[in-house]
Specification:
The chain is α/β, with parallel strands linked by helices. Helices cover about 55% and strands about 20% of the residues. The protein contains 5 helices and 5 strands; from the N terminus they run βαβαβαβααβ. The protein starts with a strand and ends with a strand.
Amino acid sequence: MKILVAVDGSEVGLAAVRQLVEFSAALAEPPDITLFYADPPLLRSVALNLGKDGVVSYHAENAAYAMKKARTALKRARLPFRETYLVGEPAESIVKQAKASKADLVVVGTHGRGALKQLFVGSVALKVIALSPVPVLVAR
């Protein structure tokens, strides 16, 4: 089973990894896990100031930081995984990566904000559920 677990460096992202570890224990074989982070693009003016190499370095550092705790949790659980990240809006990037890696399941966390706030702010988890061609496991 191919599983994409999306993290953002927060405790919510770590909760998604913990949920994945629990879920994996019930599987007959260890899953093929991709640890994923979507880094929002920089403003054009900031990107121009940083230059091409600076932008690449910025996104790589953000991805390394966002995946650090998740990486540790997966290693501790002795689950093999690969890491990847994309620069783009999170929900769309998660779905894009799920399609590209032919994932059978996407695991995401949610901050669990109230419905009223989600009307104005939006929710990455809700967008992933709406856009994903495969099942989505949401952890809180």
